[in-house]
Amino acid sequence: MRTGDDAYDSDDYQAAEEGYRKSLEEGNSTKGAYNLANSIYQQKRFDEAIRHYTTAAESAKDNT
What we know:
The chain is mainly α. It has helices at residues 2-9, 13-26, 30-42, 46-62.
């Protein structure tokens, strides 16, 4: 996830998306899904971002 965070902080949203996707392949995390949604949103792919925000919200509900 750190790779995605570093890319996001550098405004490289495509690289951030790749980093977050790799992180999620290693394990499901609410933060990873939310960060992935943010990176996709920044690329103006709004419909896809909504799907990932929904996944993050559902993951958060499962963890409570």
